[in-house]
Every structure is written in structure tokens, then in C-alpha cells.
Design brief:
The chain has 16 helices and 16 strands. With 472 residues, it is α+β, with helices and mostly antiparallel strands. α13 packs antiparallel against α14 and α15 packs antiparallel against α16.
Length: 472
Amino acid sequence: MNTSGESIIQGEIGKDLDARLSPFIQNAVLTHALPGFAIGIVANNDIVYAKGFGVQSVETRVPTTMKTLFHMASVSKPFVATALVQLIEKGRIQLDAPVITYLPYFKLDDERYRDITIQQMLSHVSGMPDEPDYEWYKPQYDEGALERYVRSLASLKLISPPGEKYAYSNIAFECLGAVIAEVSGMPFDDYVKEYILNPAGMTESTFLKPEHLPGNWAAPHLSSLASTAWKEYPYNRMHGPSSTLHSNALEMCNWAITNLNQGNFNGRHILKPSSYDLLWKPWAETIGETQPESPIQKHHVGLSWFLGEYRGEKVIAHSGGDTGFRTNFILLPDRKAAVVVLCNLYPSPVEQIAYSALDTLFGHKPAPLLPSASVSVLKTLRDEGLDAAVKHWNFIKSNHPNEYDYNNLTLSDALGGAVILDRVNEAEQIAGLCVQVLPESELKMIEDALRENPYPAAPIVLRTLHEHRGGA
């Protein structure tokens, strides 16, 4: 094994991955302006490749390694499911019982809330709405934040009857975290640390974040005219269950091995093997709800986990995305293999890189990762001005429509990033570009998004965009 504490390259498989995959990722970092990226790969229940690329922050330039901690976003949710199934194993929770059985203070302004079950929340069929504003700009750090949040939901209404249809809900997972705290008698974050993270070989991982970013943590970045470090951070303890796991490529590989071994990591059991019949059972269909670029077919959802197929192989997965971060975690249980990818830029092409890694692992030639059209054009805007950027965009759209990636980072993403970063001048430049090159339908969506954006720069940029459109 080649391991210096910074990376792992094990055996012939690891050497082959390093030779074929590392240049692919280095190219992605360059062409998509990714600040930092980390990846871990498990084959035959062993870590064969784990490595970091780029930097933890474009300001500090500290290199990313396999031990750099990233905000994992929604990859947090399977840990909530695991905790609840642990409590089911102990007879303290029933999967089909109403949530109010265990959380008496849970209440909505809709009498149907009394019928919502633990399983329905875990499988995103509870009828619960999603959270529009995580208040990253005013984080709460105290132990009471989660309960206060759940109590604050009393004015919400359901968007559909419980059990009727799939609708992804982060709010539901905050409620489930409160259930875990209520039943266990421990704060949610402490319970998961003691009963899941530590026994699964994830001793550095945590759902908590100190107020000041530790030295080995990746900083969040957003796209504007260039990838830029965000001074704030996507953390709020009231959203811990849905979003705030922090982990690294190495320890997420340990999590993969734990699940591939049906709850066993180095002789320590966090679940019974039979519990995976519940976790990975297809409880609801999610076709039509997947990301457009996702290669997974026949999507279903289990208890938090998403179930599908890739190249005819069974896939168990969960992805994540919050302000400044994108992550993806993929298990192939029949192959005893897994891939985890982590990036400190939102948006970024982690989905394509993850499946390119699987292709490389299994001997297929991965599809080329196209350079980002927006990264290229925004560089022209920054260096040469608006007229040159418009000309550049029109040229590549007309002459090279299939040679650039137009989906992962869009001009509207860069505009939104500039607003969050409070870079009003840059946002106004990007708004001017958008008006000249984007169709009316996209401009309307951008205006709608700016109206809902809570950051102070949003109304300023909205006025500018409106002026560029001639008051349309």
C-alpha cells in the first residue's frame, strides 16, 4: 500500500486507478474551476484509493487530502435512518407508528399531521413541505436549536396527504432527529457520534461545527466571476439531521465498508444484517425526481437511501448539496464496492466524476467530462468585458454545442453565487450577460429566484436585471 497519511493507493487496483483516474480528476479541477476535491474508492470491502486534489480554500491554499473534512449536506440523512433502525431493533420505536407517538410537541396547522409515520418521513412520502431557508447567515449552535425548530413548524400545512406521493423534505428529517433525541434521551448529534460514527471508524466525523472553521476543514466556495471562498458557512444546528455531517474521504470509505458488511465494521456491529431489509427496501418510487445528469435508472427510495441501477448493477446511494459544497456517496452491494466524492464548490460535477470513477474501477472507459461553458465565458467576462463574453457565448453555443457542459454550472448559478457572496458589481456584470444570451424563460426564473433570495444583494441585483431587460 502507498499511504503517507495523505492518500491511499493500494495494490494493483489502486495503482491502476491512480494512473487512469487521477489525471481525469485533475482535468476536472482545472476545467470546472473546482477549489478542492476528495475521493475514496472501496473494492472487495477494502479501501484501494483515497486522495485529495486542489485546496481546502483558495485563500489559504492548504492542499486537500483524504483526511480533509467536508460538509456532507444531505449525505447526512442515512445516518438518521440508521439511528432510527437501531432504536427499532431495541424495541423503542415502531416504523409504522405515528411520529406524535414519540414526539408529542410535533404539530402542524393541518390535522393530517397526526397520521404521519416514521417510515413516511424516512421515505419522503409524509406530505411534509421542504425548507426554503436554512438561515446559514444566522446559525444557531446551542443544544436546544433542533427542538425550537420543530416547535416552530406549527403554522405549516402539508402539501399532500401522508403516504400519497414522493416529495423530498429536509424538514421531515429534522423532525426525525428530534424523535431520536426524545427517545434516546441524548442530543441527536451526541447519539449519532456515540452509536454510529465512532463504532463505524468515523472518529473525526461530526454533526457539530465550532464557530471558527478548524484547520483541516474545507471552506465553502461559490461561483461568481471565479470560484470564491464564502466567508460564512452552511451550518445551523437546527438543521443537523438533514444536513450537517462533516466527514472525509477516508472515513466515508469506512462508512461504506460498514454498510457493505451489513452493519459490521472491524467486528463492531451498529446494526443487525436483517435491518438492511428495511433500510434498502423500495418503499416509494421516485422516477422523474432524479437529477437530469444522473445515470442511475429505475429510482426508488428506501429508508432515506436512494435505490437504482447503473450498468445493470444494483446501486444504493445518496447525494448532497448545500451552499458551497457538493457530495455523492454510492454503494454497489453486489460488488462490495463504493465511491465517495466530496467537493467544496457549489455547483460542481460530482455526479459525473463519481460514475466515471465506477467506470474506471470496473474496466470501462468513462465518458469524457466536458469543460464548463460558464467557467470559460465568465473568465472572458472578467478579463475582456461584456461584449467579448457575449460573443464568446454565442460562438460556442453555435459552433460547439456538444463540446461544453452547459448544465453543471450555469450563468444563473454564478449570478446567485455572486449575490450570496455580496459581490454586487460582479452580480450586475453577470446579470448583463444573462440578459443578452439567455432566453426569456430562464430570465423569468432568475428574477423569481432573486425575489426569494434572503441575501441583501438580491433586491439590488433584481433591480439591475429589471433595468437591463428594459423594465420587462
